Amino acid sequence: MASTELNLIAPLDSPLPAVPEGEVLTQAQWTTFLAIADTFIPSIEVSSNPSPDRLAVQSSEYALAVEKIKKALPADSDPNAAHKYLAEKASSAPGFRELIQRTFGDYMREDALKGIRVILSALDTRAGCYLFTGYTTSFHLQPVNIRQQILQNWSQSYLPPLRQIVKSLAGLCISTWIKESPTINPVLGFPRAPVHGKPGEGFDYDFLQIPSGDEPEIIDTDVVIIGSGCGGGVCAKNLAETGHRVLVADRAYHFPAKHLPMSSTDAGIHLFHNGGIDMSDDSSVAFIAGQAWGGGGTINWSASLQTQGFVRQEWADEGLPFFTSSAFQDCLDRVCDRMGVSTKHIQHNENNRILLEGARKLGYSAKEVPQNTGGNKHYCGYCTLGCGAAEKQGPVVSWLPDAAKAGARFMEGFEADKVIFEDVKGKKTAVGVEGLWTSRDEMGGVSGSERTKRKVIIRAKRRPYESSDRAQPSLPSR
Q1: 32 by DSSP, 3-state: which?
Q2: What is the DSSP pairing of strand 414-424 with strand 409-411?
């Protein structure tokens, strides 16, 4: 909990919903999958005998790795931290299998999961192993060094599906292990919460609550904004301050500063879209997007870049001349001014200092990225997991509180399904949105099963505004 005596950031727990039930993989498929995971992140030991459980290395190679790790460790580190780190494998990390189960059950596309199941099953048969590996021995029975060579061959295969499957599995296994590993953070010198900065209070939101009922709940407003992110927050403030009745609705839930920063695992579920593992349809590009109250502005690092000139010109060339006008530049400046965007208060970490100095020595042009820290020096290093100091001037701290002071209302837990259209004076006109509202549980969290669900129709006199990020599909019309 937040400490008032020491005035340190100590986040409250944010319990997760239950792990999905059912069999996402068979036991044989799990065995093969965990063998693949332990190939990407193997346990390393000194031995001359290859093993399916550990990667055997020479004593000189092991000693060199330990020495290199120890040189980077903080002064007060566990003297055995390097050995514990090298001994760990992916499947030994507490919570690794559970998070994979959650990922497969809740976030992975069914076609992608089906493809993984096919590969895993094939790697446990003589014919399948021979086809995919060149060996007749089941993949999980092979020594780690042979398994590594097999996956390396896949990554260089002339068959695109094999290259893609090893890339996807590597990303999934490594990112999951990083979230769950008990040894990596001590090695990196990265504690659970910031060791500097003070806990912030944040804005006290008052969200609409919908009573239970069988019929749809009807809500009337002037403007409904779907999405509470950077675009939605700015629009909510401006529209509310001009006298419109504004309702901002988001499928995500608000977590106050006292819950932030979250752990990587909890943030992936509570603050990121699709568990933090979004990929393009062909799985060639991975990206992350926010699904929190405040959208991407809640989990971005605080970087605040104005739209570059060549992009604005491209938009203008497509028939949108406003984006190259001085009026648009004025809009950008006003937004940055409200959030206190600048480079004046940046305190770089060691990595950034090395990059800047390296660029200088090489004669490269390097610029600092402006940050929306409201004119404060803020360098906690945890803002991608939520800002516990409530200093980063994202929508939750700036635009949405401004909108609330101007009379805007808010609804969390609203999954908008469609835009409602009606014929108005002979024209097809958007008049509202329809969706499903889900309450918090009886403890005020989102992990419990006893939660009210009700269909809600929000009717707006003005055209509904969709402020979804690029990770969310546009709302279908009716």
Answers
A1: helix
A2: unpaired
Q: Reduced to 3 states, what is the DSSP secondary structure of residue 179?
A: helix
Rounded CA separation 248/219 (Å)? 12
Please return the burial class of 66, using the count of CB atoms within 10 Å of its CB with bins 0-12, 13-18 and 19+: middle
**What CA–CA distance (Å, rounded) separates 100 from 401?**
37
Helix (H) or strand (E) holding 33, with range, is helix 27-40
Size of the chain in residues: 478
Q: What confidence score (pLDDT) does residue 366 get?
A: 92
Can you give the pTM of this predicted structure? 0.89
pLDDT digits (tens, 9 = 90+) for 354-378: 999 999 999 999 999 999 999 888 8
* Residues whose CB is less than 8 angstroms from the CB of residue 280 and which lie 6 or more positions away in sequence, other chains included: 286, 287
For residue range 126-181, what is the model confidence (pLDDT) as tens digits? 999 999 999 999 999 999 999 999 999 999 999 988 998 999 899 999 999 999 99
Please report where in the chains the tokens 């030994």 appear, as a residue. 92
Number of other residues whose CB lies within 10 A of the CB of residue 327: 8
Element holding 46 (H helix, E strand): strand 43-46
